[in-house]
Amino acid sequence: MQLDPGHEQPAAACPVRLLGAATLELFVADSAGAPREGLDVRVSVEPAGRVQGGYAVALNLEEPPFDARTDSEGRCRVGGLPPEVALTLELHEGTQLLRREELRLEPGEQRALELDGRRTLHARRSHAGGRWQSGHRHRGVAVAGQRPALVSGRNQRRSRRARSGADGRFTLEVGVGSWVVFPAPPPIGARSPRGPRTDIAPAAELVVIAPEQTSAEVTLTCWRGLYLSGTVLGLPSVSTQARGFPAWMVCATGEDASIEMSLSNGTFSIDPLPPGSYQVSASGPGGLTHSEPRTVAAGTSSSCCA
Question: What is the pTM of this model?
Fold first, then answer.
């Protein structure tokens, strides 16, 4: 709302909608129907959904505490929720996320939900050559939609983690819903650009846990040494690029993955990757200049002529 310099009255009328707050009544039980006590319930909303003044205004507001904990009967109540905006309901046991739901409530609505607790996901990891792999970290990330071939780190805060044993087996405690399970790549600081490419391709498997299930099994096949590297020819000089010109990009597109990265002195290296063929092309600032795409297999080097 814009005010005049004297603050006597607003320059234009600004209607404000006053909507009745919504309420959630929750009952949480395990797979046998027994109530779960002491679980943390958290309801959150994106900042832009809490005000009409736009995203910049919303970032300056403190997020209201929409938190509760289940009692001995597995029940809790979360009140004062904003209606007509996208809400995220999370069920936690300590630091572990058991379940995550998206919902939207009407003004003044009082909704009752019954949630179940966690399930067990049994998995086994093998190398592409058939050997069982031990001592490696794995993650299970809650997702929605179709199976991705590569998983980024943006959802790591909602993930489960485990390490495979001597027989390649590991177990993740997960909730009902869709989970992507994949081998966790090593920390960026642990990789050496001059050493052999031994990073494990984080190819993922999608596992759907139904409400009636108590466990599920999945086998991961891991691949090593698959990368794409090369040089883009015909680029502007380094001094020209250093004067603030936008970076050139290289894009590798496969059957289940599309990866884009900026160039470093005209060269690129994309790894790790799932097996298969990729179309590699380079694009100039603003996407106005494109090279002819070249089809190469993961594990080889190539060059793109811009």
Answer: 0.41
